[in-house]
Amino acid sequence: MPYSHPILEFLFLFSVIVIWGMILFNLVLTWGGYAYRRRFKRQPIKICAEADLPGVSAMIPARNEAMVIEKTVRALLAMDYPKDKFEVIVISDHSNDGTTEIVERLSKEDPRVRCLGWPAREKGSGKPHALNEGLKLCRFPVIAIYDGDNNPRPESLRILSSAMVANPNLTAVLGKFRCINRNRNILTRMVNIETLSFQWMIQAGRYWFSRFAILPGTNYIIKRQALEAVGGWDVKAITEDSELSVRLQMAGYEVQFVPTSVTWEQEPETIKVWIKQRTRWVRGNNYVLRKYAKPALQFKNRHLTTEFLYMFGLYYLFLLSTVLSHSIFILSILGVIRIDIPGPYTAVWYSAYALYMAEVFFVLSYEKEDTLGNFLITGLMYFTYCQMWIYVVFKSLWLDFTGTRVGVWDKTVRFKTDGDVAVPEPGEKADKKAAESR
Hints:
Blueprint: H1 6-42, E1 56-62, H2 69-77, E2 86-92, H3 99-109, E3 113-117, H4 127-135, E4 142-145, E5 151-152, H5 156-166, E6 170-179, H6 186-210, E7 220-223, H7 224-229, H8 240-250, E8 254-265, H9 271-296, H10 302-333, H11 345-364, H12 372-383, H13 385-402, H14 426-435
Parallel strand pairs: 1-2, 1-4, 2-3, 6-8
Antiparallel strand pairs: 4-7, 5-8, 6-7
Helix pairs in contact: 1-6, 1-10, 1-11, 6-11, 6-12, 8-9, 9-10, 9-13, 11-12
């Protein structure tokens, strides 16, 4: 006879409430992202004249990026920005594959390029340390950050700077990143769907409600004065961008998401590389949660508290509830346990799945990627890609518990791409046209 107990019923109800709570919270953010997109399209960024644009120092922290660094530097130099107001600083962190030599050659071709390099050794010092050291060389009041594999659109930096000029209250402005290898295999197509969903649902929605967006690792600008005021980058942080974002939020700064500024980047093409990257991200967020738990729970900054509770709910409560739900479902099917609480739980599950599909596919339509193929992949992601996050989170917790050291340069495996720039999608063309309205 199947086993039944009040504790089992409590755990079941707990999982249902938490899962639906997170789904509804994401629904609210999705609505906020939609509202922000509508307002942004009605009031696009007015591109500044060259005389009004601020000087920008673009930093590229790099560790063994010989395969992609030249293409990235040339893409930055080709951007539509006044030459006398722009420079590129590559911080080659103990690279041993020729990265430093490539950048030094480029610096001889164009004086706007400078290289800060250290002698090669087995392990680098890490991205936060590289950024702090590179900051000392920057000549301009605005700092731009790009990863070593990035391929920004020519107008992307000008859009970011114009947004900052238009709103003096802005401390930082971040653009959108796209997956350049999204059609390589089914995993990259799933990553593409995930990143678009995150940016349009979470980033745009977050900014709509709180006038703040979380800095990504690339394609953003920040005022040097504010950066130095909060202490630069935390060298102990694994995800230095999210950690810096918390300090900016605590200081009351405004950070805007501007989706018309686009850069293309490489994403993992194998599950092994994906797990390594995502594990690093989760461990980085674990560090942020530990570091800022006390100030967040003092409830002095409601947006910071909301962000903390959301991260905690997403990485711990939501996934714990998912595991509980899966376990109870399987054990019930096998006849080991039974839940006696009455309710339309099958309909509840179908509704959650339908809402997940609707939210994701809705934001895909923004980029004209609401195709039948992506619809099928989105449905498959729930049972595969989303479930892999359970393994990643528990692996991250275990590695943190055992004190396993994180690699200071755990980056995506690079590969060569054809052509100078990624071909824009129809949706991106429309965004560009709107962004260029003067």
